[in-house]
Write a structure and sequence with these properties.
Layout: H1 7-15, H2 25-43, E1 48-58, H3 64-77, H4 81-91, H5 95-100, E2 102-106, E3 112-119, H6 122-142, H7 144-147, E4 149-155, H8 168-189
Antiparallel strand pairs: 1-3, 1-4, 2-3
Helix pairs in contact: 2-8, 4-6
C-alpha cells in the first residue's frame, strides 16, 4: 500500500512552489540572533566603570619585594567586609551595592592595586572606586608598623564619559554569530532528505527489440 503524500507536498505540487534549500536554517538563525542581540544591546541600561590605583611602598629598610607581596594581599582584602564597611560612608551607597560593583586587580611585576567601581551612573562609579581606595589606605595605616609597608592612593578615579558596556552593534554581531552557529548545528543533526527510489523499467519478452514491439 503506497503512502499518501502530505498536504504540504500536495499543495506544493499544485502551486509549483520549489522546495526550500537544505541550508535555510543557517541564514534564518543568524538573522534571528542578530535581531535578538541588537534588541538586547538597546534595552540593556548603560554601565560605567571608573578605576582608582593604590600603590604599596616599603618603609624604612623594608625589602621592595615585601611591598610586592603585600600588594597581592591587600588586593584580596580590598573587597572584604572590613574595608567595604568603611567605604560605604564615603561612597554614599550601601555596603551590598559596593560589594557587587567593585573589583580589584594586582600586577605580579608592580606593587599596585587597581580598584574598579561600576554603576549605571558615572559619578557613582567613581565614588565607589575612590571610597574603597581610601578605606584601603586607612586600613593600611593601622598595620604599617607591623607590615613595614605604606599604602598611598596613586591615582583617583575620574568620572567616566563613555559607558563600558558593549554597544548594540557589538551585541548584534555576537548574536548573529551565535545564531549562525545554532543554524549550523541544526544542519548537522537534521536528518537527510530521502530521495525517491527509482522505478524499475518493465521487463520485456525475450527477443523484443529495446525500443519495444513495432
Amino acid at each position: 500500500m503506497s503512502e499518501s503524500p502530505s498536504p504540504w507536498r500536495r499543495l506544493r505540487s499544485r502551486t509549483g512552489a520549489r522546495p526550500l534549500p537544505r541550508w535555510w536554517p543557517l541564514p534564518v538563525c543568524a538573522l534571528l540572533g542578530t535581531v535578538a542581540g541588537g534588541v538586547y544591546g538597546l534595552a540593556r541600561p548603560a554601565e560605567y566603570a571608573a578605576t582608582s590605583y593604590v600603590v604599596v611602598t616599603p618603609t624604612g629598610k623594608s625589602d621592595p619585594a615585601t611591598a610586592l607581596g603585600f600588594a597581592q594581599a591587600y588586593g584580596r582584602v580590598a573587597t572584604q567586609v572590613a574595608v567595604i564597611g568603611d567605604a560605604q560612608a564615603w561612597a554614599g551607597v550601601p555596603a551590598d551595592t559596593i560589594r557587587r560593583n567593585v573589583q580589584t586587580a594586582t600586577s605580579p611585576d608592580a606593587p599596585m592595586i587597581a580598584i574598579t567601581g561600576t554603576s549605571g551612573r558615572p559619578g557613582e562609579a567613581a565614588d565607589i572606586a575612590n571610597a574603597v581606595a581610601r578605606a584601603l589606605t586607612v586600613n593600611g595605616e593601622h598595620t604599617e608598623g607591623s607590615t613595614g609597608v605604606r599604602l598611598v592612593q596613586f591615582s583617583r578615579a575620574a568620572k567616566p564619559v563613555d559607558p563600558s558596556s558593549a554597544p548594540a552593534s557589538l551585541t548584534a554581531l555576537v548574536g548573529g554569530c551565535a545564531g549562525g552557529l545554532a543554524g549550523g548545528l541544526v544542519l548537522l543533526v537534521r536528518p537527510k532528505r530521502r530521495e525517491p527510489a527509482p522505478v524499475p523499467a518493465p521487463a520485456l519478452p525475450a527477443g523484443t527489440p529495446y525500443g519495444g514491439p513495432r
